[in-house]
């Protein structure tokens, strides 16, 4: 009896030191892209919400938990690039509405026998571009030139496309959590038909033509 209680106490202490997301999913995942290792924050927390703690710091986004960054991108729906195409009665900028969309999509991944956080990291790796096009003024002419993408912007673009693809798919009548599940699993499998992966391929193709 004493041994069982001590074992339970050890498990509780271990959970306090390394909490699980939503008390279910482990942050112990592998990042294969070394360029993104320092900008994908996997600090264990149950409910990832920093409430703008790092917003005034230089490169503060790198200190924000990667799940929270996905949630905050989902809080601004209806965007395509910098243009606001539609408003969403579903979202309206509520944190816990976006949290529930992510959580329900993670539950779908759990049924597949996968760690949802590992799927999210893999999806970001596969959909983050390494080069893009910038307009530069050269000899009085504005020309498109290929430039390398910083690691922080790579993650930002990937998350933007994941959120954009989710709400474009949900606009057709599909549930948002089901749409996010399909977007993340497709990107994690590096499927060309996945919206964020197709956006990455198109951007890198344009960059390659502008060298």
Task: Give a short synopsis of this structure.
The protein is mainly alpha-helical and 211 residues long. It is 48% helix and 9% strand. It has a single domain, classed as Ribosomal protein S7/S5 (Ribosomal Protein S7, Orthogonal Bundle).
Write up this protein.
With 211 residues, this protein is mostly helical. It has a single domain, classed as Orthogonal Bundle (Ribosomal Protein S7). The protein is built from 7 helices and 4 strands; from the N terminus they run H-H-E-E-H-H-E-E-H-H-H. About 2% of the residues have low confidence. Strand 3 and strand 4 form a beta hairpin. Helix 3 crosses helix 6, helix 4 packs across helix 5 and helix 4 crosses helix 6. The chain is globular and about 60 Å long. A two-stranded antiparallel sheet has the order 1-2. A two-stranded antiparallel ribbon has the order 3-4.
Topology:
Layout: H1 2-17, H2 66-74, E1 79-80, E2 83-84, H3 95-111, H4 116-127, E3 131-138, E4 141-148, H5 151-170, H6 176-188, H7 195-209
Antiparallel strand pairs: 1-2, 3-4
Helix pairs in contact: 2-3, 2-5, 3-6, 4-5, 4-6, 5-6, 5-7
Q: What is the helix fraction of residues, given as a range?
A: 40-55%
Q: What is the string of SSEs from the N terminus onward?
A: HHEEHHEEHHH
Question: For the record, what CATH class applies?
Answer: Mainly Alpha
Per the CATH scheme, the topology name is Ribosomal Protein S7
Q: How many strands in all?
A: 4
The CATH superfamily name is Ribosomal protein S7/S5
Low-confidence stretches: 11-15
Could you give the distance between the termini? 71 Å
Q: What is the average of the pLDDT values?
A: 85
Number of domains: 1
Which class of secondary structure composition applies to the elements? Answer: mainly alpha
Q: How would a crystallographer describe the biggest sheet?
A: 2 strands, antiparallel
What fraction strand? Answer: 5-15%
Give the strand order of the largest sheet, numbering strands 1, 2, ... along the chain: 1-2
Shape: globular
């Amino acid at each position: 009896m004493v041994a069982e209680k001590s074992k339970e106490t050890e498990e509780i202490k271990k959970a306090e030191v390394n909490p699980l997301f939503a008390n279910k999913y482990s942050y112990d995942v592998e990042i294969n892209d070394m360029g993104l290792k320092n900008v994908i924050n996997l600090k264990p927390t149950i409910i990832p919400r920093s409430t703008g703690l790092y917003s005034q710091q230089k490169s503060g986004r790198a200190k924000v938990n990667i799940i929270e960054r996905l949630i905050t991108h989902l809080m601004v729906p209806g965007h395509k690039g910098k243009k606001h195409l539609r408003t969403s009665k579903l979202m309206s900028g509520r944190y816990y509405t976006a949290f529930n969309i992510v959580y329900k999509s993670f539950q779908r991944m759990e049924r597949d026998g996968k760690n949802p956080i590992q799927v999210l990291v893999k999806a970001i790796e596969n959909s983050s571009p390494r080069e893009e096009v910038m307009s530069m003024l050269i000899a009085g002419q504005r020309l498109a030139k290929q430039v390398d993408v910083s690691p922080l912007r790579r993650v930002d673009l990937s998350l933007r496309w994941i959120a954009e693809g989710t709400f474009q798919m949900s606009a057709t009548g599909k549930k948002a959590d089901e749409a996010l599940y399909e977007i993340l699993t497709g990107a994690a499998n590096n499927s060309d038909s996945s919206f964020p992966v197709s956006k990455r391929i198109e951007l890198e193709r344009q960059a390659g033509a502008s060298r």
